[in-house]
Structures are given as C-alpha cells and as structure tokens.
Amino acid sequence: MEITQESISMLEPYCSEFLIHAADVEGLQQGIDEELVSKLAQWCSIPVTYAGGARNLQDLEKVYVSSGGKVDLTIGSALDIFGGSGVTFDECVEWNKNH
C-alpha cells in the first residue's frame, strides 16, 4: 500500500497506532526515508513508529528532529541484539532516557 495523506486518513479511524514499514529501505541499513518520516508527523494524529533503513544513533536523532518528536523509530538489523554492529541496545536505551 502506498503511504499517502489519503491512505492515512482512511485507516486512522480504525487504528490506535501505526507501524509503518518503509519496504524500499527496510533491512538495508542505508538510512531512513526522512521525507516520509516528516510527512508521517504531519499526517498522523495517532502514535506512529517508522521502520526501515536505520543504521545508528544518528538515525534516531534524524527521526526525532524530522518529526518534531512525533514519530518513533524501530531499529532492526543494525542493532547488536539482532547481530548488527551499527548500534547497541544499551546505546538506544540511553538515547531514549535522554529524549
């Protein structure tokens, strides 16, 4: 499904939260889709988590800034507990404590 303002508006009344998988970048560890993150912050009035492309703590910061703190980020294959080397679980916990 293409993520647009119209598709968000159509689905939002039936959801309590969105988990948006950016399939084009997911699992590649090549960076997040900042434009999509920014649009999600504008379009969504319910909690939203973005997944796809995250590499490191800088990507957590980019999502935070791009969304004005409205969008959360899930880190998958880059995370040490999943075999990645881009960021550790402990670093993510510490970042979240400070934000």
From TrEMBL:
GO cellular component, one term: cytoplasm
Any one Gene Ontology molecular-function term assigned to this protein's record: 1-(5-phosphoribosyl)-5-[(5-phosphoribosylamino)methylideneamino]imidazole-4-carboxamide isomerase activity
Keyword Amino-acid biosynthesis assigned: yes
Record keywords, A-Z: Amino-acid biosynthesis, Histidine biosynthesis, Isomerase
Sections of the chain in a coiled coil: none
Keyword Isomerase (UniProt): yes
Any GO BP annotation: L-tryptophan biosynthetic process
Family recorded in the similarity comment: Belongs to the HisA/HisF family.
UniProt protein name: 5-proFAR isomerase His6
Originating species: Rasamsonia emersonii (strain ATCC 16479 / CBS 393.64 / IMI 116815)
Organism ancestry: Eukaryota, Fungi, Dikarya, Ascomycota, Pezizomycotina
